[in-house]
Design a protein that fits this description.
By secondary structure, the protein is of the alpha/beta class. It is 37% helix and 14% strand.
Length: 412
């Protein structure tokens, strides 16, 4: 296959239409990733809208921070799919869709006619991606699940007891976000398969299984063998002493991982006794007493300022980092110089900051994203695209099956 280099560059998913029936974080993050790559994402919302519209700081109702940061590159349609007229509109959308992504528990999905076996005969090319808490094949099939629940179930909360002394949740909706990446990846894989087969696909992303696989990349350890050769758990990261080191005026992360790194660290310290200490000279030796090794580094780091360590470690090419607080990220030199933070002008919410899409593809044009839509902003537009006339659209609005956007004041 040859490519026409004179043809205008396109984003990978241009021409792909995705019907998004998800709420909260997992599904909306997945469809935002797909929208970043050019897909036409149609976000179907109940009349009250996605709950995240009301979580966090907001200039206008239903346009809160949580929502704005996970729903760019989408069009919003208010549609009550529990009513027959709403289901009729939904099926008109599916007639022209490539992907349906939903997070409705299976019994409810089937009542709405959204089980894959119910859809595939009518839409044989449709990729259906179902994000759910637990695999349908297991004992917990159908149980409700949110991020905290999956952190607990997948072993992640218990891992935090190493540093906290008791199970704790990671202060991030990490199960939702990891599962979102897997959803986006799975949808693109299914679309690629469809290119070869012409057939749609039933894709399921269970959060529990996704996070257990994620957590056990390193922590399966000896249990990768049957019978196990060692207990589960990767010892080097399961140390209470594994933490940023205190300097004279702050904290810094220092990781002299290889023997070359250690030799350079010892040179910075300028202590021949440390350089020649057999406990630390080789990687294998250091692994035998990690708590003692971290304590030795910590004792040395505490004798200098953060800026001194940053200068010395950078010059010696030893892996390190400042310990950034969240607010530091907005002015962090690398992120600023790489253009990571961007801004857009939202028609109602003013200037908004957002992170760059996480995938960089050299030949793909870098375009300003579509703003996160107001609730029902595109309802009438999309109903017209489906061939509904003005009278029918007005009837749907008046009955409450659909709703056009309630106008927010323009940004000052």
């Amino acid at each position: 296959m040859t490519s026409d280099r004179s043809a205008p560059a396109r984003r990978p998913l241009e021409g792909v239409r995705i019907v998004d029936l998800t709420t909260m974080i997992l599904g909306p993050m997945a469809t935002q990733y797909l929208g970043d790559q050019g897909a036409d994402v149609i976000k179907i919302e109940e009349p009250e809208g996605d709950l995240t519209r009301y979580i966090g700081p907001q200039r206008h109702p239903a346009m809160a921070a949580f929502y704005l940061n996970s729903n760019r590159n989408k069009r919003s349609v208010v549609l009550d799919i529990k009513r027959p007229e709403g289901q009729e509109v939904l099926h008109k959308l599916l007639d022209g869709a490539d992907v349906l992504l939903h997070s409705i528990r299976t019994p409810s999905a089937r009542r709405l006619g959204l089980g894959y076996d119910q859809l595939c005969e009518r839409y044989p090319k449709l990729v259906v991606c179902h994000a759910q808490g637990y695999s349908e094949r297991g004992a917990y099939a159908g149980m409700p699940a949110y991020d905290d629940v999956i952190q607990a179930a997948s072993g992640l909360a218990m891992l935090q007891s190493v540093v906290a002394g008791e199970p704790r949740f990671v202060p991030s909706v990490i199960a939702d976000k990891v599962s979102a990446v897997h959803c986006a990846f799975a949808v693109m894989a299914a679309l690629m398969q469809r290119v070869g087969t012409g057939q749609g696909q039933d894709v399921v992303i269970p959060m529990m299984e996704t996070m257990v696989a994620f957590n056990t990349v390193e922590h399966l350890w000896g249990a990768i063998f049957e019978p196990p050769l060692a207990p589960m758990g990767y010892v080097p990261v399961s140390q209470a002493s594994r933490r940023p080191f205190a300097t004279l005026d702050g904290h810094v992360c220092v990781l002299p991982y290889t023997d070359h790194h250690w030799a350079r660290f010892c040179k910075i310290v300028g202590d021949d006794a440390l350089t020649n200490d057999e406990r630390w000279r080789t990687h294998n030796a250091r692994q035998k007493d990690l708590a003692g090794f971290y304590a030795e580094i910590g004792r040395r780091v505490a004798q200098r300022t953060t800026e001194d360590w940053v200068a010395q470690l950078s010059a010696a090419d030893v892996p390190y980092s400042r310990v950034n607080a969240l607010q530091d990220l907005l002015t962090e030199p690398h992120l600023v110089s790489s253009g990571f933070w961007r801004t857009m002008e939202h028609p109602t919410e003013g200037t908004l900051r957002y992170p760059s899409p996480f995938m960089e593809i050299a030949s793909v044009p870098d375009r300003a994203p579509r703003h996160a839509p107001g609730l029902g902003e595109h309802t009438s537009e999309i109903l017209r695209e489906l061939g509904l006339d003005a009278d029918r659209i007005a009837t749907l609005h008046e009955s409450g099956v659909t709703r056009a956007r309630i106008k927010a004041p323009a940004a000052a």
